Amino acid sequence: MAPTSQVLVKQTSNVRTIILNNPQQLNALTPEMASQILELLNTYEEDPSVKLVIVKGEGKAFCAGGAVSVFLNVSWKEAATVFYTAYTLDYLIATYAKTQVSLIRGIVMGGGAAFAVHGRFRVVTDDTVFAMPETALGLFPDVGASYYLSRLPGFFGEYVGLTGARLDGAEMLACGLATHFVPLEKFSALEDALCKANTGDPKIINNIIHDFSNKNPKLKEKSQFFRLKTINSCFSRRTVEDIISALEEEAYKNKDDWISWTIKTLKKASPTSLKISLRSIRTGRLQGVGQCLIREYRMSCTVIQGKVCRDFFEGCRALLVDKDKNPKWEPSKLELVSKQMVDSYFAPLDDEDWEDLKLPVRPNLTSYAISKL
């Protein structure tokens, strides 16, 4: 096993295992890690001796997301370069020609979730915890999240993307974010079996994972997935304001801790983030993964540029720096976030040095679909 900074590579005959090795930070993806993994995946795709690529995290987390604190100490154009690499990496994973398996233990959040979910086989387990917590930080679910969230059952993707709700492994399988659920005590044996099989044939790989799988892991009694009827009724509304009003109507009819939590969470999130996130997910329903990434790159650059709104920097201050957990959003209310403000996140940046994300031509569009998602 050869260490390359915070990325480890294990070679087993024709199988390559990429291990995120930043456990002190829950394997948060640094710019250097993203660049290394992009280089490795490009190399493996072109190497005829590599048949299967496995991705996992060292320790008890898969990946807690991108290391967002990096963006506080660089210019917005330097940050845009980091986004460019991350988005290109996720596009490569989504269109990868070789069979790829994500072994998802522990926390998988934000950009880390995208890193896992774009893969063909997504294996979760007993301790897996998924979330897209960006709206609490002044961001939005990105790196292709508007593609896969918009394709979850009903309006479950809007619910997950706007609230940052945490899902366990069984819920990930039920909604389609995962392809398989393998009990934790069998996880190591599954990895060994995949390496021993020494094949990239998707049917064989699927059968191997299937043999280790719990086909119908039991959803917990209060699983959010059981709330899909209410979620569809409320989160299908046209605007964030309408969604909250619908939830408040439900709360009036029925006192319910989950509905109260949902309303409270939405009202605590960045109003700007909520509005751009909802439009992003809705737009993603009609776009391919490449189109989603190109649009989200525009949005991320607009966020980090900070001309329209500086909620991201305030969210980082409140949650990561001062840790008072009391962000002062500006605009402070949904009704103060104008359509013109929201529109600006979806338009090219007004800067002569800035360019849209240019993704390479990929013949394998797309290696994963929402039937497997």
From TrEMBL:
Enzyme class: hydrolase
A Pfam family that the UniProt record links to this protein: ECH_2
Known pathway: Amino-acid degradation; L-valine degradation
UniProtKB keywords: Hydrolase, Isomerase
EC number: 3.1.2.4
Domain Enoyl-CoA hydratase/isomerase: start-end pairs: 15-346
BP terms from Gene Ontology: L-valine catabolic process
Keyword Membrane: no
Catalysed conversion reaction: 3-hydroxy-2-methylpropanoyl-CoA + H2O = 3-hydroxy-2-methylpropanoate + CoA + H(+)
GO molecular function terms listed in the Swiss-Prot or TrEMBL record: 3-hydroxyisobutyryl-CoA hydrolase activity; isomerase activity
Family, per entry: Belongs to the enoyl-CoA hydratase/isomerase family.
Function: Hydrolyzes 3-hydroxyisobutyryl-CoA (HIBYL-CoA), a saline catabolite. Has high activity toward isobutyryl-CoA. Could be an isobutyryl-CoA dehydrogenase that functions in valine catabolism.
PANTHER family: 3-HYDROXYISOBUTYRYL-COA HYDROLASE, MITOCHONDRIAL, 3-HYDROXYISOBUTYRYL-COA HYDROLASE-RELATED
UniProt-recorded name of the protein: 3-hydroxyisobutyryl-CoA hydrolase
Species of the source: Helianthus annuus
